[in-house]
Amino acid sequence: MRSSVIVFPGSNCDRDIAVALKKMQFKNQMVWHKETVLPKSDLIVLPGGFSYGDYLRSGAIAGKSLIIEEVIKAAKAGCFILGICNGFQILTETGLLKGTLLRNKNLRFINKDVQIKVINNKTNFSNKYKKDQILKINIAHNEGNYFTDPSHLEELRKENLIIFKYCDVKGNIDESSNPNGSLENIAGILNSNKNILGMMPHPERMTDEMISNNDGINLFSSLLN
Amino acid sequence: MKFSVTVTLKKDVLDPQGKVIKNTLNDMGIKNLNNLRQGKYFEIEVNETNLTLAEKTVNEMCKKLLVNLIIEDYKINKI
User: Is A144 on the interface with B (CB under 8 A)?
Assistant: First the structure.
C-alpha cells in the first residue's frame, strides 16, 4: 500500500507516523504542503502537530494550503485519509469532516495516555480490532473537544460513523472518562463514505512495545487487510 | 477602504475562556457583571472604492477563512 504524509510548517508527528507506516510495510512518501501534485497514494495522512502555530484556529491555515485541493480530490475519489490530532482539526477546517474541535473543556493542554473504545470495528480503519475493545492510546492536544450540530450528531449515530469513544479502564463511557469535553465522548469519526477518519488520539505513538504499547498497530493493519 | 470584523462564538457554544475571565472579574470585586463572551477582532484594508464591492470582498474573506461558521458569528463594520 502506498501512503503519503503531508508535512506543514509546524507539523511535529510527521516522522513518527512515517516510522509507523514503514514498520507496517507501507511505501511512504513525505509531501511538503506547497506541492501541487500528490504521488499516487492509497492512504494520505495529515499528521499531528501545530501547523502554522495554530494561528487563527487550529488547522485553519493548513486547511487552505496548496496541497489540500489535491487531498480533497483524492478523498472524493475514495482514497483513504487519516487525520490525527492536528490532522483531524485540518480535516474539519477543509470540510472533509463535519463539526469542529473546540478548546478542551478544562482549558489545559492534555498530554496523557487514555482509554478509548472501538465502537465500530466494521470499517477499513478498524476491522482488525474487536468490537468494544479498549485501547490505551496517547492524546496530546489543546483543542480536542469535538462539537457538531444536532442533525450531524444524529447522522453520526445512525450511520455508525463514531469509530472511537473515550472510556475508562473498565470501558465506561461517561463524563469522568471524557478528557476534553467532546460531545458523547467522541474520540474519532468517519465521513459518510467511511474513507476518511479523523481522530484526536495518536495511534502512531502506540506501535512499539519498547516505548509504549502496540494498541495502534491494528489501525494500520486494518488498512492493509 | 477600511473595515473591522468582529467574530464571536455562537450563543449555544460553550466559551470556557470567557467564563474564566468573567469569574476572575467577579473575584476582583466586580459584582454587577452579568455575562462575558470572548471573541476576535480584525482590521482589514481593501483596495476598492466601491463600498458594495469592498464589503463583498470582506464577506468572502470571513466565509472562506476568518470565521468558522459552525461555531462563530461575525459582524462587518466600515471604519
Answer: no
Boundaries of every domain in chain B: 2-78
Work out the mean pLDDT of chain A and round it to a whole number.
Answer: 97
A93 touches chain B (CB under 8 A): yes
The C-alpha R_g of chain B, in whole angstroms, comes to 16
Set of chain A residues whose Cβ sits within 8 Å of the Cβ of B68 = 57, 60, 93, 100
Within the 172-201 window of chain A, which residues sit less than 8 Å (CB to CB) from chain B?
A: 181
**Residue A164, pLDDT score:** 98
* Closest CA of chain A from B46, distance in Å: 20
Inter-chain CB proximity A107 and B20 less than 8 Å: yes
Q: Please report which confidence band the pLDDT of residue B68 belongs to, taking 50, 70 and 90 as the band edges.
A: very high
Candidates 3.40.50.1220, 2.60.120.10, 3.30.1280.10, 3.30.365.10; CATH matching B2-78: 3.30.1280.10
Q: Which residues numbered 98-127 in A keep a CB inside 8 Å of some CB on B?
A: 98-100, 102-103, 105-107
Q: Are A187 and A199 in contact (CB under 8 A)?
A: yes
Quote ipTM for the complex.
0.81
pLDDT digits (tens, 9 = 90+) for A112-142: 999 999 999 999 999 999 999 999 999 999 9
DSSP B20-78: HHHHHHHHTT--S------EEEEEEE-S-S-HHHHHHHHHHHIIIII--TTTEEEEEEE
